[in-house]
Structures are given as C-alpha cells and as structure tokens.
Amino acid sequence: VTTRSIVQGVAAHGLPGHEGPQLPGRGGSGPLGPGPWSSLIHVVQAQRLVGFLHAAVEAGALPVTDDQRREVEDLHLSWCGRVLRLERILLDVAAELERAEIRFLVLKGSASAHLVHRDPALRLFGDNDLLFRSESFSAALTVLQGLGYRRGVSTTDAMFDRRFGKGVTLRGPAGDEIDAHRTLVFGTFGFAIDLDELFDSAVPLELGGRQLRALGPETRLLHACYHAALGDPVPRFSSVRDVAEMLIRGPHDPSRVLELAERWQARAVVARAVALCQEHLRVEVDGPLVDELADYQPTPRERRAIDSYVGPERGFAAKVTTSLPYLDRTTDKVAFLGASVVRSAVFSAPHGLRSTIGWFRRGVRSLVRGSGRGG
Amino acid sequence: VAGWERVPEVLWRRSGPRRVLDLPSCDEVVVLDRTGSAIWDLLESRRDDAEIVAAMSDRFATHPGAIEDEVASFLEELRATGAVRRA
C-alpha cells in the first residue's frame, strides 16, 4: 500500500460504494508510522483533500494515533479559517464589482464547496475563481486592480486577454489570489464554448447573507470535466472528486449535459473525465451520461487537442496549433495566430525567438489545412 | 416571541465538534468549542432563551437551572462579536 493508494482512498471517502482508504493490514495493523504519515499529510494538502482526510479520520475509516488525530483536526481548523477568509474577500470583491455593474459568476472553490458537496467543510480551496463576460473583462480587471490586485509577469496584451485568453491570475494585497476567467479553458475546446450559455445557466449561490451567482448544474459539471481532464497531466484528486461527486449525486440533467457537450465539441473531454474518476478514485460511476460516453473513441483531432493540454508535447505552442481548427472564421484564426506570436515571443524572450518562429510556421500550415471544423 | 438568530453575514464551517466563524467586523476567525458549537447549531432556526436552555440541558444531561446563566452569558458574548442577534 503506497501513499498514493491511501490518498486515493481519502479522495473517494464518502462516495457510495467506496469502502474507505486503503490501509496496510486493513483490519490488522494500525496507524501509519511517522514517515509515511508526514508524507500523507504533505500530499493531502497539495491535493486539497484535508476536508476528506478529516472526514475519514472522524468516521474511523483511517486508523490514527491520538497525536495524528489532533494534527488532522488542527489542520482542518486552520484550512477552514483560510477558506473563510477567502470567502470574506470574495464578498468584498463582489460588492465592488456589483457597484461597477459588472456581472460575474463564482467558479470552482467556493461554488463547489456550497453547491456540490454535502458539507462545504469537505471541499477546501486555495483561491477565488471568477468568470466575466468578454466585453467586461477589461473593466473587471480595472476594478480588481483598484482593490490592489496585481498580475504577475504579463505575457499577453489586453486584446489577447479579452478575445482569446482563458483569463489571468491576480495577487491581492492580503496575499490571496483571484483567477479572473473569461472562459473555462484556453484555446481549442474553449473556443467552442458558448459563453452566453454559461451566464444563462447561472444559479444563486448564497454566501454570507448575499446572493452571488454560480454556474448551473450542467455547465458546472462540464467545467469540472474540463478542469479534471485538461488542467494537469496528472489531475488533482480534488478536481476528480468534484466530477465524481456531481456524476453520482447530481443534480444535473444528463441529456442536457450531453447536448451541451455535443455542441461544445467536448464529448471527448467528458469521456476522459469519467474515465479519470474510475482510474484515480477507483469508483464505479454509472448512469445515462456514463453509459453514453463509456466507449467513446476520440477523433484524431480531439486526441491531438487533448494532448496539447496533458500530453508529453503539451504547451502553449501545441495548444495554439491545435486550436486553429476550432475557430470558425479565417479572420479569427489570423488574429489568434498573430496575437499568440506576440505572447509566445514574450515567453521565449530569454531563449530567443527561434522556437517561436518554428511553431508559428507549423501554426500557419495548420491554419491552411484546418480551415473547417471537421476532422 | 423574541429569540436569537445567527447574523446572516457570518461565514462559518463545521470542523468536527467545533465551528469556525468568520465575522464581518473581526480580522480573526472565531472557533467555538463543543458546547458553543451546539448552541450555534441550534440557531439554524430562531430560538428563544428557554428553548436553547432546554435543548442544551437535554443534550448534556444537566438540570436547566444549572446552565441557564452560562447559556445567557455565552449568547451575550456571541452577540458582542456580531455572530448572533436578538430577533
């Protein structure tokens, strides 16, 4: 039994049909020794699973010493304090955005905690994520900057951010981070998302006596799938748990999810997210959505697009190249490629522009080839 | 009948037997112990003093008269932090 398998068990704790963390000598030997325990605590924090670890320990699913129990209790308390501070900041920021009449939706962290999981103390998070409409993206950044939020090294210009970017990360005066999103995923699949539908799907999110807005059940599930399937080559367990939680406990209309996934060309993404639930959490998820996508075979174009996020050749250049077929109009393709060259040049500056020019040429070839949406 | 209720602006989480509260007027979070958390949980809906004392007396198997003052003083303390209010 490895740290990973225990973490896997912690991540799946509480899901129907899951028996609990896999421990050495389950029903036999007791708590982990100091070394493996310390390693478990480290990974659990990095994977944002402290809430699930706390629940597993409370339920007696993970044998611990008294000291280990106290450590988990203190850790959970400390993380709860941290997310509450983030939610307070979110409310302050929300008030300023509302004053400026900028509409936004709360994504992931706080929205997942309150709308997805049975107890918000299970789902702990490290930043705030907000989605803005493209046309108000620059104004939203201005409001955030007025509150003291600053971008790190900027690799894009305002036009790129507003028209093609996924969003930007800003650090606040209290050391907190806000991810300001314009869409749910960069490039390829992101271009196929109907951004108006995200806002049209919004549902209330009650927080601290205020009513904010968050994605509705179907678009929230799709966002969780994008995040788990395309976010990192090895997805964070908490991201996969979000998907599993929604697939198993809902509430969503599976036919609506499938219809959106079809229109947003995201069936391969959802299929990958479902497979990740089974691989990473070792839980069987079923239902109409899973039945429909269990045997889904991605097209070569979808496979290339997914690889540009999580494959061995992943990276900005790969995403740009695979994105072109997802843009309908040639003018958009040209503008995107041009804006991307500027961005990549900034990225490549310390190493020269040779690699930038190389992928730019590949991008042009791809632009010429992939002028339609097929394939 | 006048009762006690949570201030809606308070953000909070359940952490085992404890409750962690973030108050709009305070820079630090407040952690309630097991007894304080039990009172906080009771205030999920509005309750008057007698209801709170009765419920706490049942829960901790004590005579209502023995905890009345303690409950009243805790509620006043909680009110001073801005976590609850008389409604």
Number of helices of chain B: 3
Residues in β-strands, percent of chain A: 5-15%
Q: Based on helices, strands and strand pairing, what is the structural class of chain B?
A: alpha+beta
Q: Could you tell me the mean pLDDT of chain B?
A: 92
Helix content of chain A: 55-70%
Q: How much of the polypeptide of chain B forms β-strand, as a percent range?
A: 15-25%
In short:
Chain A has 375 residues and is an alpha+beta fold. Chain A contains 18 helices and 7 strands.
Give your account of this protein's structure.
The complex is a heterodimer of chains A (375) and B (87). Chain A has 375 residues and is of the alpha+beta class. Chain A has helices spanning 3-12, 34-46, 50-58, 66-99, 109-115, 137-146, 158-163, 188-192, 195-200, 217-230, 237-249, 254-263, 267-281, 288-293, 300-310, 316-323, 330-348, 354-369, and strands at residues 104-107, 128-132, 150-151, 167-171, 177-181, 203-207, 210-214. In chain A, the strands form 2 sheets. Chain A has a 5-stranded mixed beta sheet with strand order 1-2-5-4-3. In chain A, a hairpin with a 2-residue loop joins β6 (203-207) and β7. The longest helix of chain A has 34 residues, at 66-99. The model of chain A is unreliable at 346-375 (pLDDT under 50). Chain B is of the alpha+beta class and 87 residues long. Helices cover 44% and strands 22% of the residues of chain B. Chain B contains 3 helices and 5 strands, in the order ββββαααβ. Chain B has a 3-stranded antiparallel beta sheet. In chain B, strands 1-5 form a two-stranded antiparallel sheet. Chain B starts with a strand and ends with a strand. Classes of the chains: A alpha+beta (375), B alpha+beta (87).
